[in-house]
Amino acid sequence: MVTRCPAWGHPEPSLNSQWLSLLLLLLLLPGPPPALGMEDASFPHLGESSQPPPRACPPRCSCPRADTVDCAGLDLRVFPDNITRAVQHLSLQNNQLQELPYNELSRLSGLRTLNLHNNRISSEGLPDEAFESLTQLQHIYVAHNKLSEAPQFLPRSLRVADLAANEVTEIFPLTFGEKPALRSVYLHNNQLSNAGLPPDAFHGSQAVVTLSLSSNRLSYVPPSLPSSLERLHLQNNLISKVPRGALSRQTHLRELYLQYNQLTDRGLDATTFRFTSYPALSTHHPQVGISSLRLSGPVLNNPPPTRSTRPPTLGAQPDADPLSPASKLHCLEYLDLSHNQLAAVPAGLPRTLAVLHLGRNRIRRVEAARLRGLRGLRYLLLQHNQLGAAGLPAGALRPLRGLHTLHLYGNGLDRVPQALPRRLRALVLPHNRVTTLGAHDLAATPRLAELNLAYNRLASARVHRRAFHRLRALCSLDLAGNQLTLLPSGLPASLHTLRLQRNQLRALEPEPLAGLDQLQELCLAHNRLRVGDIGPGTWHELQALQVLDLSHNELSFVPPDLPEALEELHLQGNRISHVGPEAFLSTPRLRALFLRANRLHMTSIAPEAFLGLPHLRVVDTTGNPEPVLVQLPPTAPRRPRAEGP
Predict the structure, then answer these.
(1) Can you give the pTM of this predicted structure?
(2) Phi, psi of 570 (to 5 degrees)
(3) Do the strands 68-70 and 62-65 form a parallel or antiparallel pair, or are they unpaired?
(4) What is the average pLDDT score of the chain?
(5) In terms of Cα–Cα distance, which of 244, 268, 240, 259 is closest to 317?
(6) Residue 590 in contact with residue 584, Cβ under 8 Å?
C-alpha cells in the first residue's frame, strides 16, 4: 500500500485552512482601532514582569514577611517612614531613637508587637496619645530607655509590657489597669517608690501572673497587687516591712522574691505568710476615682488624664485595710528572704513551701516550732548566718521530713548537726569549724548522696573509721581544705567523686581506696605527696577513674601504674624534670595531660612517650624553664562515610 503525501505548494483543502482564511479576511476588513485601556491588564506586556510588585520596606530595614518589619540595630535616630499599614510586628530595638511621632505610630493600627528595647526614648518623646490607635497591641518592649514616667495609657489588648531599666518614678491607673489579657509586667531596675505606685494600678487586670518590681526604691510590699499573681519579684529594694494583709489576696502566688532588702523580724509577723481570720465586719468600701469607672467600649474614646493627675491615696498607707478578706498563700513554693537582717526563722511559713532561702541573714538559732508543718520543704538554705555551736539544737530540723538539701556553710558550726531528717540527700557544711567526725554523726542520714565538709578543721585522728559506714548511697564527698594527713578509712564504695585537695597528705596507701571501683574523679591537689610515698597498688582498684588531679605536690616524675580508664591527668606545679617512654603505658585512654610549671626542658619528654595514646589531644607544658618539644601521636584515620547508590 502506498501512502500519498500532498505535494509542496498544493495543499489539500481542510477545515483548518478554511478557518485560517476566514480569520485573515476579518483582519483585513476596515474598522476602528482598538480603544486605549482595553488591553488585558493581567497579560504581561513587553518590559513588564508577571511577578507581584515588591512590598514597601523602609530603607536598610528587612521585611521577611508581609506583616513584619525589622529595623533593629541600624543606629536610627528618626522613626522610619514608609512602614506598611499591614505591619503587625515592628522591631526597632538597639537604635538611637529619642521620640515616637504620633502621626507615624497612629497609622499602624494593626500592630501586635512593638519592640523599642535599648533606645533613648524619654517621657517627653512619648506623647500621651502615642498608643491610642494601637487597639490590637499585645506585646510592648520599652526596656533600657530613658523614661521617667510610664505611659499614661496602654492599650486594653496588652498581654506583655516590659518597661525595665528606665528611670520610671511613677505609673498611672491606666498604664496597667483595665487590661483583662495582661499576663506579664516588667518594671525592674527603675526608681519606683511606693508613692509612685497607685493603689489601683492593676484594677481590672486580674490575669497578671508575673510582676517584676525588683531593683527599685520600694520601702514596703505594695498592697492591692493582682490576685492572679504567680511570680512576684521584689528583690533589691528598700523593703523593711510586709504590711499586714498585703499578700492576703495572692492565693495563686508560687514564687516570692524578697532578697536583698532590709527586712527585720519586726517587719514580718505570724500573719505575713499565713493569715488568720478577721472579725466578720462589713468589708464594703465604695470605690473612688479611676478604678471605679466601668469602661464600656474602647478606653480611647475618653481622653487620658493629664500627667499631673494623681489617683486618690485611699489604701496607700503601709498597713493594708485590716478588713480585707482573709486568705492564705495556698500555692507558695519558693520563698527567698536571703540577704536581709532577720535574726530568726519567720513564723507562720506556708506549708506548701518547697524552697526556703534564708542565707546571709543574722539568724542565731533555729527553732523546731518555726518549721513545724513544712513537711514538703525540699531545700533549706541557711548559709552565712550566725548559728554558732548552739544555734542548731538536736532535732531542730526533724519536722522537715521531706528535706532533700541543707546548706549550712559559713555558720561557725563545730560539729555536724544531730538528728537530721532521714531523707536528706545533700548536706553542705563548708567553711565551718567542724573538728570531729564521729562514728554516729552521719548515721541518721543513710540516703546522703552529697556531703560537703570542705574547709573545716578535720584532722585524720578525729575522723572515725566508721564515720561513713552508713552512707551507702554517697556519690560525692568533699573534704578539701582540712588538716588530713592520711586518706580516711571506710569510704563508701558508691563514691563517684572524692575531693581531698589542700590538705596535708603525705602518703597514699591502697587500703583506703580499696573497693572504690565506681570512683570517677579524685582530686589530691595541693598536698605534700611524693612518688615514693604512693604505695604499690594504690591505683589498682580504681577501675573507673577518669580524672586524677595530682597537681601542686612534690612529684619528681609521673607516678607509675596509673588507672587504665584515666582520661585526664593533672600534674602541673610539681617537680617533674623528665618523662620517660613508658610513663603512660598503663593509660591508653588518656585525652588531656597537664604538665605546666614543672622543671621540663626542651627534650625532657621522650619522643615515644605518647605513642600508645591515640586519644591524646591536649598536652600543656607552658610555664616550664624551656619550651618543651611535644610530639603528639598521629590521629586515627576517620572511617569513610557510607554513601548511597
Answers:
(1) 0.81
(2) -105, 115
(3) antiparallel
(4) 85
(5) 244
(6) yes
